[in-house]
Amino acid sequence: MFDSIYSYSVTPAQFFTMAAAALITGVLFSWILSFRIHSSKRYFLVVSLLPLIVAAVITFVNGNIGAGVAVGGAFGLIRFRSAQGSADELVGILISMGSGIAFGMGYVAYGVMILIGLAMIYFLLSYAPLFEHKGMAREQLLRVTIPESLEYNGAFDDIFNRYLKKHESAGVKTTAMGSMFRLSYKITMKNPNEEKQFIDELRTKNGNLEIAILPYSEDTAQL
Questions:
Q1: pLDDT, tens digit, 9 for 90 and up, residues 51-82
Q2: Domain 134-222 coded CATH 3.30.70.60
Q3: Dihedral angle, C-alpha 184, 188, 189, 195, nearest 10 °
Q4: I want to staple 47 with a disulfide (CB 3.0 to 4.6 A). Which of 30, 144, 202, 206 is the partner?
């Protein structure tokens, strides 16, 4: 059951058996992920086909090390042709590619186990409250727009000390043709339920200009 279905040379029957298994389990894997990952239909279509695509390439390489290195380089170029996705989306792609290697070597049972098994593990872990504790306080990105006349150094310290567990400047940028400043901070709220009061107090200091609180990431901090 767990032996490779490939003989010394791959027959059409063996290839199509592998292809059917990779496609069916790829679609099932993508369907399971769709309950926990919020992404586009196009992403799930790609994840569904990826095990079969990788398996077909591995099958055609058929142990040729030079061809394998060339294929690896070609897959590496995909990173530079697409926007960076979320951690969930990247995990889905990596699992699909890993199972595709197993399918491409003829280990159909292992490929099915990788796809379905890891999909179920991810599904169950996403519901388990393993990482929902006080030590895992959520970091956010605060953006505050202020008029150029306001001295921003220390202007919000009293509010920050009242509502934030910690804060760190993430940059200053001019906006509106230099007539305003946009301040960015990496923050952690003491009490997430006080977010509205926190924003209301900031509005009294920045003249009711734009304020945004976003999930923090290196990408959003650079925008």
A1: 898 888 888 776 555 555 556 555 655 554 45
A2: yes
A3: 40
A4: 30
